[in-house]
Amino acid sequence: MKLKDYLRLGWDQLQRRKVVTALCTVGIAIGSASIMVALGFGESIQHYSQKQMSFYLKTDEITIVDQNSDPNSPSKVTSSKLDLIRTFPHVKSVASFQDLGQFRFTVDDGKESYLNLKATELSTLEDFDSKFQQGGASDQDNNIVLNYGATLGILDAKTQEVRNKLMQQNPSKEQSETYRQMGAIPYPLYQKKISLKSNNNQEQPSNQSGTNTIQPSEVSVRVIGVLKKPDGLPDSMLQGNKAAYVSPETGLKILQAQNKSSTNRHVQYSEVRVKVDSSMNVKQVDEMIKKLQLTTQTNLYQEDRMKGEFAIVRLLLTGVGLFVLFVASISIVVAMTMSTHQRRRQIGIMKVLGANLKQIRNMFIVESSLLGMLGGFVGILLSYWVIWGINLIIIRFGSNRGDPVEILFISLWILPVGMFFAIMTGVLSGLYPAVKASRTDALTAIKRE
Q1: Which range scores top for mean pLDDT: 75-79, 282-286, 308-312, 438-442?
Q2: What does the pLDDT read at residue 227?
Q3: Are 259 and 82 in contact (CB under 8 A)?
Q4: What are 276's strand-pairing partners?
């Protein structure tokens, strides 16, 4: 007998026993769908978690720490080394940050607030996942970029004085909540000029000759960009995160204006961040940076720990799918055994006409394989329906931040895996009925029928 003959006979038997075929197909479909959903669920959650962790923990970034705390001695982190790191393979961008301290700023209409100022290459802000809500980076001097928190809680001096006085007179919870909400209102600063003055400046005393020292002066800068509000954080949590960025040249001018810098002072970087094209290449780039005698920090251990945890979850979910397939295989064994009993006369006639044991076994194995393949196809459809339903629930009842995103998905490599388990379940479940059918005595079977 040829393969097409086995297939034709097997398909004919499946069509005759519609109820049994449907029940066995449902069992295999549920089992194979459970495996595919388990694999898809594990891969999707791992992919989503890696993406979120990469955004918040920056697993694709390397932080270079300057351990030299003496401002009068040269730093190990030099501009020449940073230029060399920019040429390393897999390095997308390098940004250096110099902490200039806390400054109070005044808007042209008299309103004021404070911010923490940092000097960096403004063109690298977007390379490190900072998106602009307004404006953009510029290479011109006397420009400043604010984060979203720096635009909150900007009030004039008189309003602040009245608010503080009322708070002292009536320090109730409702009053505090009202003022907190007032401090969460953003103020339009884009394209406005603001005057910076250091928050740490003290009144300079007279020297021994009786003359006063040079007082720190205010520096005017223009707001050329405002960074986008971070997703998932309410305005109340951003009120204390007031940061601003200027170019290194502008930062030097500000320090000189505040009497904090001289031409002999060594540049001390508070932080240097290296963006790598993928977290898989972080270890390689990290080793190359360490050869420059620099101290680095990464979050790779967090990613490795997460992979181990999701491997356990994936194994557990796959185990559930295999258990369901095992239960489904029992139903196939029962169904095929009953089919063998009902088809004893057919088996006897086939043996009388010259069919050998191998052909009888193959006929039942092909039939059970077709049953597994049919269950596998239905399982693929079922798995996509389950994933679609879960995504629909997540989008409908989940957080409404940003555009709706489908978190769960099934990769193409999972489909043949699910089909393999479905077909193997059918084949293994059909072995015992096939062997039993091949041992049927032809004359006894015909005589009893």
Answers
A1: 282-286
A2: 92
A3: no
A4: 91
Name which of 231, 355, 311, 297 is nearest 46 in CA terms: 311
User: What are 212's two structure tokens?
Assistant: 């006063």
Q: E-assigned strands of 66-167?
A: 91-107, 111-119, 132-135, 143-146, 155-156
Whole-angstrom Cα distance, residue 17 to residue 201?
91
pLDDT in the model for residue 202:
45
Q: Which two tokens stand for residue 409?
A: 């998905």
Task: Give the mean model confidence (pLDDT) for residues 128-155.
Answer: 87
Average pLDDT for 266-294: 86
Q: In this model, does residue 239 exceed pLDDT 70?
A: yes
Kindly provide the b/e burial profile for residues 178-211, where b requires at least 16 CB atoms within 10 angstroms of the residue's own CB.
eeeeebbebeebeeeebbbbbeeeeeeeeeeeee
User: Burial code of 42-66, b = ≥16 C-beta within 10 A, e = fewer?
Assistant: bbbbbeebbeebbeeebbbbbebeb
- pLDDT top residue among 251 and 52: 251
Tell me if residue 398 falls in helix, strand or coil: coil
Contact 220, 192 (CB under 8 A): no
The half-sphere exposure of 273 on its side-chain side, counting CA atoms within 13 A, is 18
Nearest-angstrom CA–CA distance, 196 and 107? 9
Residue 209 above 50 pLDDT?
A: no
d(CA 14, CA 19): 9
Asked if pLDDT for residue 254 goes beyond 80, the answer is yes
Q: What is the Cα–Cα distance from 135 to 143, expressed in whole angstroms?
A: 12
Strands (E), 290-385: 295-297
- Closest C-alpha among 361, 351, 375, 355 to residue 425: 375
Q: Hey, which of 60-74, 309-323, 377-391 has the most confident mean pLDDT?
A: 377-391
DSSP secondary structure, 159-192, as one string: HHHHHHHHHHH---HHHHHHHHHHTT-B---TT-
Q: Average pLDDT, stretch 353-366?
A: 75
